[in-house]
Design a protein that fits this description.
Blueprint lengths: L5 E4 L2 E10 L1 E2 L2 E7 L5 E7 L6 H13 L5 E13 L8 E11 L19 E7 L8 E2 L3 H5 L7 E6 L3
Parallel strand pairs: 2-7, 5-9, 6-10
Antiparallel strand pairs: 1-2, 2-5, 3-4, 4-5, 4-8, 6-7
C-alpha cells in the first residue's frame, strides 16, 4: 500500500493532491461518487516519493482507463474547507497541483474507479458554460477555463465560513 502525502490529526488535516483539467469539445471532465452530492476534479493524493506529474498521470489512468499526457502545470490551488461525509467537521488545508492534459479527441470510456472509502465513482463531461449551475469543486474552474493565462496561476480558496 502506498502512503499518501497528507495527515489527519484530531480535527485538522493536510492533503497534497494532483488533479487534471481535461477539456474535450467544450466540456471538462469531473468525477462524482455514490455518497456525495457534488462533482469534483479528476485526481487524488500524491504518494510519498512520487512527483505531482507522476501522480496526475496515475490518477487519470485509474479513473478513466486512458493514458492522457500532461500539457503543462496550470494552477497551484490552496484550498481551506471543512470536510463532509466520512470526514465531517475536519478542518482541511489542501494543496493541489492542477495539470492541463492534452486532449485525446474522445469522450467515451468506462470507469471502474472507487474512492478511498470504496464508493463507486463515475466520470461526467460537464459543459464549461454550465459549470456555475452545478455543485462542482474546485469552484474556480469555470472562470479559469473562460479566461486567458500566462504561466502557472496560484489560487487560494477559503470556504471555512
Amino acid at each position: 500500500m502506498e502512503h499518501n502525502c497528507g495527515f489527519i490529526n484530531d480535527k485538522k488535516a493536510f492533503r497534497y493532491r494532483a488533479a487534471a483539467i481535461i477539456v474535450e469539445e467544450g466540456c471538462v471532465l469531473f468525477a462524482r461518487n455514490d455518497k456525495d452530492d457534488y462533482y469534483y476534479s479528476v485526481g487524488g493524493a500524491v504518494h510519498m516519493g512520487e512527483t505531482s506529474e507522476e501522480a496526475v498521470k496515475r490518477e487519470v489512468f485509474e479513473e478513466t482507463g486512458l493514458n492522457y499526457e500532461v500539457d503543462h502545470l496550470a494552477v497551484i490551488h490552496e484550498h481551506f474547507f471543512i470536510g463532509s461525509s466520512g470526514l465531517k467537521g475536519v478542518n482541511f488545508h489542501e494543496l493541489t497541483f492542477y495539470y492541463m492534459m492534452k486532449p485525446m479527441g474522445k469522450r467515451d470510456f468506462t470507469s471502474q474507479s472507487t474512492t478511498e472509502s470504496g464508493a463507486k465513482e463515475t466520470m461526467h463531461w460537464l459543459p464549461i458554460d454550465e459549470l456555475d449551475k452545478c455543485k462542482a469543486y474546485p469552484t474556480f474552474m469555470k472562470e479559469y477555463l473562460k479566461s486567458e493565462h500566462r504561466g502557472v496561476e496560484h489560487i487560494v480558496t477559503d470556504e471555512r465560513d
